[in-house]
Amino acid sequence: MVPGPFHIDAGRLLLTVAAATLLSACGVPLPLRGGPAALTPAQYSMLSESEASTARSTAVESDELPVVAVRSYWRSPHFTVVAWHPDDAAFGLRGVVRRDDATLVREHTLYISTFAFVSPNEYAGAFWHAFTALDTPGRTLIPTGVLVDVASCEGDVGCSPFRSVTARVPDKVLRNSPEGLAVKLVTPHTSRVFVLGRPLIDAYLAEVDAVRGAVLRRVAADH
């Protein structure tokens, strides 16, 4: 398998050196070590009133258009779509589309810069919950490790994070969140809420769909 344009920071992963080397060579994000201590369901499956209030106010975005970058690299088997709000590139969405069949690799990815946290204790072993509505229980997301993107500043639209913590977001969750998506990280030490506004999600999905459509048309033309 041809390595992608990034490698994985395996410094905090509960894997043997041999396994970490093998998976990193394939461009596969590796799981973070450990998990949260005993928590009540309300701590991670619901937003508190203050968290919901903050999420509502954060979801009101400016008139500025989201930033969407499509990146491709020499000999890479993928196109990478990255999107963030122009006021804050610390978190956003990322998708990897195969060049040969337009498959979306490992669904969509929510990324959050590690610099958005005071210490690794705020994200290491965290529970991730996504809320398509702020007053209903969230859906657990699968964390996919710490990603180091050595091409984070490719293109002329600005930089996405060089080092970020990531989680998978199913396609239907993004498409069925009419008011945006709030994501809550809970660890034994703290909880944090990050909000993706609907304009950002729409711009990201539109670009992913456009890239996939272009690949499918090329594949059809080749046959």
List the helices and strands and how they pair.
Layout: E1 6-8, H1 17-25, H2 41-45, H3 49-58, E2 67-72, E3 78-85, E4 88-98, E5 108-113, E6 127-131, E7 139-141, E8 143-149, E9 163-169, H4 171-175, E10 181-186, E11 191-196, H5 198-222
Antiparallel strand pairs: 1-8, 2-3, 3-4, 4-5, 5-9, 6-7, 6-10, 8-9, 10-11
Topology, number of strands: 11
Query: Main beta sheet: strand number and arrangement?
Result: 7 strands, antiparallel
The poorly predicted ranges are 1-39
Report the helical percentage.
10-25%
Question: Could you say how many structural domains there are in total?
Answer: 1
Overall pLDDT score: 77
N- and C-termini, Cα separation: 24 Å
Helix-strand category: alpha+beta
Walk across the major sheet and give the strand order: 1-8-9-5-4-3-2
Strand proportion, as a percent range, falls in: 25-35%
Count of runs of 4 or more consecutive helical residues? 5
Structure report:
There is one protein chain. The chain is α+β, with helices and mostly antiparallel strands and 223 residues long. The protein has one domain (32-222). It contains 5 helices and 11 strands. A hairpin with a 5-residue loop joins strand 2 and strand 3. The radius of gyration is 17 Å and the shape is globular. It starts with 5 loop residues before the first strand and ends with a helix.
